[in-house]
Amino acid sequence: MPKVRHGEEDIGFQVPSGWNLIATAKPKELRRVGPEHEEITRGFEKPIGQDKLDVIAKAGMKFAIVCDDITRPTPVHKIVPTLIEKLDAAGIRSEDIYIIVGVGTHPKHTCDQNVKKLGQAIVDRFNVISHDIDGDLIYLGETSRGTPVHVNRRFAEADVKLGIGNLAPHPFSGYGGGPKTIVGICGRETIMCNHRFVKDDRCQLGLLKGNPVYEDIVEIARKASLHMIVNTLLDSEGRIARLFVGDPVEAHGKGVEILEKACKVILPTLAEVVVTSSFPFDDYFYQSWKGIFSAALTCKQGGTIILSAPCRMGVQDEHYKLLTENRLFKITSDEIYEKVEKGEIKPYIIGLITYKLRSSIGDREVIIVTRGIEERKIRDMGFRYASDLDEAFQMAKAKHRTANLVVLPVGAETLPIVSGQDFGC
After folding, report:
1. At what angle do helices 348-361 and 285-296 cross, to 10 degrees?
2. Burial of 35 (0-12, 13-18, 19+ CB in 10 A)
3. Interior CA angle at 398 toward 288 and 372, to 5°?
4. φ and ψ at 349, to 5 degrees?
5. In whole numbers, what is the pLDDT of the chain averaged over residues?
């Protein structure tokens, strides 16, 4: 019986009559090489392309530690204690360690979210702040593509700068983690200019080489002097399977090599129906779109994508307003892009990401299976609504009496490749 991940549970289902299940495309399990604490220690003791912290850290230095926000599954609370131990041993004072949550364009963290992300002991000891995209920034010049680099002043003025994140496929920067951590502490103009490259066909899931969004981010990270990254690869239970520490590009590249082997799944053909999930990016509707991007790679035009996502935090007002007021699923992706560039669709960054989603969906229909958002809102945003998978199947059967079916149990962490397509980092 095929299953799809929905929040913390796996939901099994029967394949509807007349449908042919051609693949359940799931990433290979990332085998842990040892207990998490041992892997964390190993990562810091064997950095890639960078000196160990023991060598870098000197008393009197100021350190800035950037971590991703609550919408990402990175278990920062498991990593930071070891990092702080090393800084303590080097004589770095608590008041010289700045912890910044790289929220980027996302909402600032609450105190409870800081505790969940970092742990109570860290929050009690250090001044943890959320980055303000329009706050105190410093200008560091432009990238070769003309992106102005504005970053958090506290980050920029530190002697050593580290970023903590997670490696996962990303819809337009190729893969998350690595130098992309820097985006979370950049200014609005920087993020807007970097996102403008999403119209380029090379800005796609699982592609780094030649990807202008990724390559621009690398330049931003270098200009901002991001010295070191700490990136996790998680197993299916959210535990740290591997830790990559070191140079933002080199260490990230080593991690991507392993991740790509695990998440890339070859399929024999496109399917009329694809069932996907957005786990572990499934609390917010906006983040759950990641499951749709993966599904679109395997679904025929005119087909049906069924996204199963709990969306416990619902849909943010600005996303709901953008999708409903502009009737984005009534116009083409090119028309969306034109409206965004003319300033008719705001905010700009969300508009561009919506363009990318609309471009990926094409003329496929999308059915959202959720209890976290009321049916009216799902319909207002241009999607179809189902309360469970059985209802979604009944809706899809009206269009596809016979169909090939692909299931992506954890679509947001899967890079599905149809045989004959050419993908790679």
Report:
1. 30
2. exposed
3. 25
4. -65, -45
5. 95
- 84-108 per-residue burial string, b: 16 or more CB within 10 A, e: under 16: bebbeebebeeebbbbbbbbbbbee
pLDDT in tens, 216-266: 999 999 999 999 999 999 999 999 999 999 999 999 999 999 999 999 999
pLDDT tens-digit map of 310-328 = 999 999 999 999 999 887 7
pLDDT tens column, 340-363: 999 999 899 999 999 999 999 999
Kindly report, residue by residue over 303-312, the tens digit of the pLDDT.
Answer: 999 999 999 9
Question: Which residues, 6 or more positions from 10, have their beta carbon under 8 angstroms from its beta carbon?
Answer: 3, 4, 409
The confidence score (pLDDT) of residue 139 equals 98
Both tokens of 326, joined, read 């502009």
φ, ψ of residue 356 in degrees (nearest 5) = -65, -40
- Please give the model's pTM, rounded to 2 decimal places: 0.95
